[in-house]
Design goal:
Layout: H1 3-12, E1 15-22, E2 26-31, H2 38-45, H3 49-58, H4 60-63, H5 73-97, E3 110-112, E4 123-128, E5 136-144, E6 147-155, H6 165-183, E7 191-192
Parallel strand pairs: 1-7, 2-6
Antiparallel strand pairs: 1-2, 3-4, 4-5, 5-6
Helix pairs in contact: 1-6, 3-5
Protein backbone atom coordinates (compact mmCIF):
# COMPACT_ATOMS: atom_id res chain seq x y z
CA UNK A 1 0.00 0.00 0.00
CA UNK A 2 1.47 3.32 -1.00
CA UNK A 3 1.53 6.44 1.15
CA UNK A 4 -0.80 8.14 -1.33
CA UNK A 5 -3.41 5.39 -0.92
CA UNK A 6 -3.24 5.65 2.88
CA UNK A 7 -3.79 9.40 2.68
CA UNK A 8 -6.77 8.74 0.43
CA UNK A 9 -8.15 6.42 3.12
CA UNK A 10 -7.78 9.19 5.71
CA UNK A 11 -9.37 11.73 3.37
CA UNK A 12 -12.38 9.42 3.07
CA UNK A 13 -12.36 8.43 6.75
CA UNK A 14 -15.52 9.16 8.65
CA UNK A 15 -16.44 8.34 12.23
CA UNK A 16 -20.02 7.12 12.26
CA UNK A 17 -20.36 6.43 16.01
CA UNK A 18 -18.51 6.37 19.32
CA UNK A 19 -19.51 3.46 21.53
CA UNK A 20 -19.20 2.95 25.28
CA UNK A 21 -17.22 -0.24 25.85
CA UNK A 22 -17.25 0.46 29.61
CA UNK A 23 -19.62 3.35 30.37
CA UNK A 24 -17.90 6.49 31.75
CA UNK A 25 -14.47 5.02 31.04
CA UNK A 26 -13.59 3.21 27.81
CA UNK A 27 -15.03 4.21 24.44
CA UNK A 28 -14.32 3.25 20.86
CA UNK A 29 -14.93 4.93 17.53
CA UNK A 30 -16.43 3.15 14.57
CA UNK A 31 -15.33 4.24 11.12
CA UNK A 32 -17.45 4.09 7.99
CA UNK A 33 -17.78 1.47 6.39
CA UNK A 34 -16.59 -0.84 9.22
CA UNK A 35 -19.20 -3.12 10.80
CA UNK A 36 -17.52 -3.07 14.23
CA UNK A 37 -16.07 -0.40 16.48
CA UNK A 38 -12.26 -0.39 16.60
CA UNK A 39 -12.02 -2.06 20.03
CA UNK A 40 -14.22 -4.99 18.97
CA UNK A 41 -12.55 -5.18 15.55
CA UNK A 42 -9.05 -5.53 17.03
CA UNK A 43 -9.97 -8.35 19.37
CA UNK A 44 -11.99 -10.13 16.70
CA UNK A 45 -9.02 -10.04 14.29
CA UNK A 46 -6.52 -11.05 17.00
CA UNK A 47 -8.62 -14.17 17.65
CA UNK A 48 -9.08 -15.09 13.98
CA UNK A 49 -6.52 -17.77 13.02
CA UNK A 50 -7.04 -17.18 9.28
CA UNK A 51 -6.40 -13.44 9.60
CA UNK A 52 -3.38 -14.07 11.86
CA UNK A 53 -1.83 -16.64 9.49
CA UNK A 54 -2.18 -14.24 6.54
CA UNK A 55 -0.77 -11.36 8.61
CA UNK A 56 2.27 -13.28 9.86
CA UNK A 57 2.95 -14.75 6.41
CA UNK A 58 2.83 -11.25 4.94
CA UNK A 59 5.13 -9.91 7.70
CA UNK A 60 7.35 -12.97 8.11
CA UNK A 61 10.52 -10.92 7.62
CA UNK A 62 9.58 -8.77 10.65
CA UNK A 63 8.58 -11.84 12.64
CA UNK A 64 12.00 -13.39 11.88
CA UNK A 65 13.77 -10.47 13.57
CA UNK A 66 16.11 -11.65 16.36
CA UNK A 67 14.00 -9.66 18.84
CA UNK A 68 11.20 -12.23 18.48
CA UNK A 69 13.56 -15.18 19.17
CA UNK A 70 12.79 -17.26 16.09
CA UNK A 71 9.09 -17.72 16.82
CA UNK A 72 7.23 -19.70 14.15
CA UNK A 73 4.01 -18.56 12.52
CA UNK A 74 2.11 -21.27 14.44
CA UNK A 75 3.60 -20.08 17.74
CA UNK A 76 2.89 -16.45 16.81
CA UNK A 77 -0.79 -17.28 16.20
CA UNK A 78 -1.10 -19.02 19.58
CA UNK A 79 0.80 -16.22 21.37
CA UNK A 80 -1.42 -13.55 19.76
CA UNK A 81 -4.67 -15.29 20.68
CA UNK A 82 -3.55 -15.86 24.29
CA UNK A 83 -2.25 -12.30 24.64
CA UNK A 84 -5.42 -10.83 23.09
CA UNK A 85 -7.60 -12.66 25.60
CA UNK A 86 -5.53 -11.42 28.58
CA UNK A 87 -5.26 -7.91 27.11
CA UNK A 88 -9.00 -7.50 26.53
CA UNK A 89 -9.78 -8.82 30.01
CA UNK A 90 -7.27 -6.42 31.62
CA UNK A 91 -8.50 -3.38 29.67
CA UNK A 92 -12.11 -4.04 30.65
CA UNK A 93 -11.20 -4.75 34.30
CA UNK A 94 -9.05 -1.60 34.68
CA UNK A 95 -11.64 0.54 32.87
CA UNK A 96 -14.26 -0.55 35.40
CA UNK A 97 -11.93 -0.42 38.44
CA UNK A 98 -10.63 3.01 37.47
CA UNK A 99 -14.08 4.52 37.95
CA UNK A 100 -13.69 4.13 41.74
CA UNK A 101 -9.93 3.57 42.31
CA UNK A 102 -7.61 6.52 41.75
CA UNK A 103 -4.42 4.42 41.73
CA UNK A 104 -5.53 1.90 39.11
CA UNK A 105 -6.97 3.68 36.07
CA UNK A 106 -6.62 3.23 32.35
CA UNK A 107 -3.68 5.65 32.60
CA UNK A 108 -1.76 2.79 34.28
CA UNK A 109 -2.14 0.74 31.07
CA UNK A 110 -1.88 3.49 28.47
CA UNK A 111 1.22 5.58 27.91
CA UNK A 112 1.97 8.46 25.55
CA UNK A 113 2.49 7.28 21.97
CA UNK A 114 5.91 8.92 21.78
CA UNK A 115 8.38 8.97 24.66
CA UNK A 116 8.65 12.41 26.19
CA UNK A 117 5.54 13.73 24.41
CA UNK A 118 2.86 14.39 27.00
CA UNK A 119 -0.13 16.46 25.94
CA UNK A 120 -2.43 18.13 28.42
CA UNK A 121 -5.40 17.81 26.08
CA UNK A 122 -6.44 14.75 24.05
CA UNK A 123 -3.12 12.93 24.27
CA UNK A 124 -2.34 10.18 21.72
CA UNK A 125 -1.66 7.01 23.72
CA UNK A 126 -0.93 3.32 23.32
CA UNK A 127 -1.44 0.24 25.48
CA UNK A 128 0.63 -2.90 25.01
CA UNK A 129 -0.51 -6.50 25.35
CA UNK A 130 0.11 -8.45 28.56
CA UNK A 131 2.53 -11.20 27.42
CA UNK A 132 5.93 -9.47 27.29
CA UNK A 133 7.33 -8.80 24.87
CA UNK A 134 3.99 -8.11 23.22
CA UNK A 135 3.36 -6.94 19.69
CA UNK A 136 -0.29 -6.12 20.38
CA UNK A 137 -1.16 -2.42 20.58
CA UNK A 138 -4.37 -0.53 21.23
CA UNK A 139 -4.24 3.14 20.23
CA UNK A 140 -6.47 5.68 21.96
CA UNK A 141 -7.01 9.33 22.77
CA UNK A 142 -6.89 10.18 26.49
CA UNK A 143 -9.72 12.46 27.60
CA UNK A 144 -9.02 12.07 31.35
CA UNK A 145 -7.10 9.64 33.61
CA UNK A 146 -9.73 6.92 33.19
CA UNK A 147 -11.51 8.05 30.03
CA UNK A 148 -10.02 6.88 26.73
CA UNK A 149 -11.38 6.68 23.19
CA UNK A 150 -9.96 3.73 21.24
CA UNK A 151 -9.32 4.63 17.63
CA UNK A 152 -7.39 1.58 16.44
CA UNK A 153 -4.99 -1.18 17.16
CA UNK A 154 -2.34 -3.26 15.45
CA UNK A 155 0.24 -5.99 15.60
CA UNK A 156 3.53 -4.06 15.78
CA UNK A 157 6.55 -6.20 14.92
CA UNK A 158 8.91 -3.31 14.07
CA UNK A 159 10.70 -0.82 16.36
CA UNK A 160 8.82 2.19 14.98
CA UNK A 161 5.41 2.80 13.43
CA UNK A 162 6.81 4.61 10.39
CA UNK A 163 8.08 1.46 8.66
CA UNK A 164 4.86 -0.39 7.76
CA UNK A 165 1.71 0.77 6.00
CA UNK A 166 -0.68 -0.80 8.53
CA UNK A 167 1.07 1.12 11.34
CA UNK A 168 1.17 4.39 9.39
CA UNK A 169 -2.60 4.02 8.98
CA UNK A 170 -2.91 3.72 12.80
CA UNK A 171 -0.94 6.98 13.20
CA UNK A 172 -3.32 8.62 10.73
CA UNK A 173 -6.36 7.27 12.63
CA UNK A 174 -4.97 8.67 15.91
CA UNK A 175 -4.54 12.11 14.37
CA UNK A 176 -7.93 11.98 12.64
CA UNK A 177 -9.74 10.97 15.85
CA UNK A 178 -7.92 13.57 17.92
CA UNK A 179 -8.92 16.27 15.43
CA UNK A 180 -12.49 14.96 15.41
CA UNK A 181 -12.69 15.20 19.21
CA UNK A 182 -11.04 18.66 19.25
CA UNK A 183 -13.25 20.11 16.54
CA UNK A 184 -16.53 19.85 18.34
CA UNK A 185 -17.45 19.18 21.96
CA UNK A 186 -20.64 17.56 20.66
CA UNK A 187 -18.45 14.74 19.34
CA UNK A 188 -17.85 13.70 22.95
CA UNK A 189 -21.38 12.34 23.21
CA UNK A 190 -21.21 8.56 23.19
CA UNK A 191 -23.61 5.82 22.17
CA UNK A 192 -24.12 3.05 24.73
CA UNK A 193 -23.95 -0.59 23.65
CA UNK A 194 -26.77 -2.75 24.98
Amino acid sequence: MSKKKINLQVDLMKIINTFAIVKDSLYSVQYDPELLNEFAKCFELWNDPIYLREFFEQHQKDLNNDFWNGITIEEAIIKTKEDASLFEEELLYIAETGKTERLETLSTLFEPLSKGVIDENLEKDKAKGMKRPSWLRIYAIRIEANIFVVCGGAIKLTPTMNERDHLILELDKLEFTRNYLQDDDENLEFVELN
